[in-house]
């Protein structure tokens, strides 16, 4: 049998990690992806969110080279997914699908060695990578004894084999408990700090809100919005909410202090008052509330959530 030497050169790290230019995928009259332009920089955690059927999974599969675009161009680490260089570039890509399918009769370590052979990664990486995702204690156990969360962590571990420079993660926290989710994102931050680019999709918007550098909102096959969470909040002009804790006898006085401010509304709540105001009116509202003095027992400023932003752009 002829020995084949696998390409060991990583993708070009001088430019963006991922570029999509006018990318489309048509299934007859259905435009699953319809003219997407997107750039993801190296060393960035990038979120891709959208309703079911928005085109996220189709775009993911085209970026991975699993399906061919109907139009446009996709570059991963400078290599076109349609070009002959992509075979080498793909060895530096990690992928965790939404539904991880594994062999129940294999142990965790045997599963890792299986994927290492497929990816051309050193088998010496298998045990340390299992330990990195918290599965060292289950390395020799058959997968039929793994919980859903353990299977998900094993799927993440196989995506890390070969020390990829680009990671594609589709609903990666599916089945994980809160502590495992925290550990998972801590690992992602460490990878980002090492220069790894991470593209992640999730339906759990609150989970992504403080954990991605930028994100794109997809709807009807197009990118409807792109930027950091704060940039998207600003684009939507969503109001801030100020939650005031007051004694019941002081609620009316607080309402009167802000009643003259334009575009500011207030509503009594169980423990005081809720004030809604445009972002640019925040300081004026706070200045007016100084008149309460010690009657103001507490105040919390609540930013619009990523869910608020998402529905604002996708509806």
Summed up, what is this model?
It is globular and about 70 Å long.
Describe the structure.
- The protein is an alpha/beta fold and 315 residues long.
- Mean pLDDT is 90; it is low at 1-11.
- The protein is globular and about 70 Å long.
- It has three domains: 15-92 and 165-227, Rossmann fold, CATH 3.40.50.300; 104-163; 238-314, Alpha-Beta Plaits (2-Layer Sandwich).
- The chain contains eleven helices and 14 strands.
- It has a six-stranded mixed beta sheet with strand order 6-7-8-3-9-10, with helices on both faces.
The CATH superfamily of the largest domain turns out to be P-loop containing nucleotide triphosphate hydrolases
How many domains? The number is: 3
Structural class: alpha/beta
CATH fold annotation of the largest domain: Rossmann fold
* CATH architecture descriptor name of the largest domain: 3-Layer(aba) Sandwich
Q: Strand order, main sheet: write it out.
A: 6-7-8-3-9-10
Largest sheet: 6 strands, mixed
Number of helical stretches of at least 4 residues: 11
Distance between the termini: 57 Å
Provide the succession of SSEs.
Answer: EEEHEEHEHHHEHEHEEHEHEEHEH
Which CATH class of the largest domain applies here?
Alpha Beta
Strand content: 25-35%
Poorly predicted sequence stretches spanning 5 or more consecutive residues = 1-11
- Quote the average pLDDT: 90
Number of strands: 14
Give the CA-based shape: globular
